[in-house]
Specification:
By secondary structure, this protein is α/β, with parallel strands linked by helices. Helix content is 21%, strand content 37%. The protein has 9 helices and 23 strands. The strands form 2 sheets. Strands 1, 4, 5, 7, 8, 10, 11, 13, 15, 16, 18, 20 and 22 form a 13-stranded mixed β-sheet that branches. Strands 3-2-6-9-12-14-17-19-21-23 form a 10-stranded mixed β-sheet, covered by helices on one side. A hairpin with a 2-residue loop joins β2 and β3. It starts with 8 loop residues before the first helix and ends with a helix.
């Protein structure tokens, strides 16, 4: 088995830059622990099975520096990304730094605590869970985040608490002279019978180069419900490496929907781990890429106890020379009977130069389960295109309509009205842009 290589010089350079500050931070102990882990962990490369399809040159050939400042932005550049339902339940981070001026956390009801992690570092919940849930053995990016982060989103719901509005965690990345690294962090703990909706948004304001490594830890306790929407619309020159991990307890529900639109290279590794019986979770995703984008999703749905329902519909539309990678693993442990798990990866190729690698995996060690998985890669159905043409559409318009319909299925369960409309508009923008590009080529 190939071993990870030594940490790349550019990342070591950043570590050297951050090290003198460790003694001054609130997270001194956590930073030191992760620094030791990082120095023991190699950097991935294509000879490792989990990374063999992913081109890491956007990381290894760029000399990133640490972003120390949030900088200043005109209000209009930030406020246009606010969702109206969260006018009193919003956390804003610019280049990974908490921005109090644009945050609003006063309208969430009794028993709901929302704020900057740095301001809650002494709370018992933070001490109990922060950095305790991220189980990515051999991964270099989690400890890297653990060394670098200072601020982060903190969401805690007491037993029985219901957030009265969706909480928006808005991560904005600004223009900068040099390529830089941001390390957003998020900790969510939903106590028994609580309920919350979270909108996690990552936005690049220009087309500059940066790398963001968001790490989120989510604990869904007995009978709690979390609805989690992740929207990734970074700069087309950015690198986005995400590590969201969730633990679900008895009678709890966790439903996540990840929409991937931006970044030159994105690697998302969602993991959901069952901690007791009678749970229900979703790990759906929609990827819309073109040009020379690379979007890589490696997911894990880990069933460790009996009586669970899980669902993953991962849809991808690829145009241009874009490259999609999907590796979805369903684990059903020996004592996990009565599991009903569904996984499907559907890929739509709009160009001859696009590339898809799909690898759904089932590892089942129990005998009384109902599990299905599959992957398809195809193009638009010529008969459907012809049918729409017979109703007066041009060929490109017909393809645009069919692509639009294919993509929408994944986001129909997003509950927040403005976010649902936003995603519909993003899908429309993607299909419209690709349709117009082809019309220009053929005219």
């Amino acid at each position: 088995m190939a071993l990870p290589s030594k940490v790349e010089p550019s990342i070591l350079h950043q570590l050297a830059e951050v090290a003198p500050e460790n003694g001054q931070t609130k997270w001194k102990e956590l930073h030191e622990k992760n620094s030791a882990r990082l120095n023991e962990t190699g950097f991935p490369h294509k000879k490792i099975e989990e990374w063999r399809f992913t081109d890491l040159r956007p990381i290894t050939r760029t000399n990133f520096v640490r972003m120390n400042e949030a900088g200043t932005l005109p209000a209009i550049d930030i406020e246009k990304y606010f969702i109206p339902e969260s006018d009193r339940s919003r956390l804003v981070f610019i280049n990974g730094k908490f921005h109090e001026k644009y945050s609003s956390i006063g309208g969430l009801g009794k028993g709901v605590t929302v704020g900057n992690l740095s301001d809650h570092s002494d709370e018992e919940v933070v001490r109990e869970y922060l950095d305790k849930l991220v189980n990515y053995d051999g991964d270099v990016f989690v400890p890297y985040n653990g060394v670098m982060f200072e601020d982060g989103a903190y969401i805690h719901l007491e037993k029985g608490a219901k957030a009265e509005a969706p909480i928006q965690v808005l991560n904005i990345y600004t223009d900068a002279k040099n390529p830089y690294v941001a390390t957003p962090r998020m900790l969510v703990v939903a106590e028994e019978e609580s309920d919350v909706t979270i909108i996690e948004d990552h936005i690049g304001l220009s087309e500059n180069t940066y790398m963001t490594i968001p790490v989120s830890e989510v604990k869904v306790k007995q009978g709690a419900h979390i609805h989690h929407v992740r929207i990734q619309r970074d700069s087309r020159e950015a690198v986005h490496v995400a590590r969201p991990i969730t633990y679900v307890e008895k009678n709890s529900e966790y439903h996540s929907y990840t929409i991937t639109l931006g970044a030159k290279l994105s690697r998302n590794e969602p993991r959901v781990i069952q901690e007791d019986e009678e749970v229900d979770f979703t790990v759906d995703g929609l990827v819309l890429i073109d040009g020379e984008q690379i979007a890589d999703t490696h997911s894990v749905m880990d069933h460790r106890f009996s009586h669970a329902e899980s669902h993953q519909l991962h849809k991808v539309v690829v145009n241009g020379k874009a490259h999609s990678i999907f590796n979805g693993k369903i684990f059903v442990r020996r004592d996990a009977q009565k599991i009903d798990s569904f996984q499907e990866n559907r890929n739509l190729l709009l160009s001859l130069d696009g590339l898809v690698n799909a690898k759904p995996q089932l590892e089942i060690f129990a005998d009384d389960v109902l599990c299905s998985h599959g992957a398809t890669v195809g193009q638009l159905d010529p008969e459907e295109v012809f049918y729409l043409q017979s109703r007066g559409m041009t060929e490109e318009k017909a393809k645009e309509v069919l692509t639009y319909a294919f993509a929408l299925e994944t986001i129909e369960n997003v509950k927040v009205d403005s976010v649902h409309k936003l995603l519909i508009d993003e899908v429309y923008r993607y299909t419209k842009a690709n349709s117009e590009e082809k019309e220009q080529v053929t005219s």
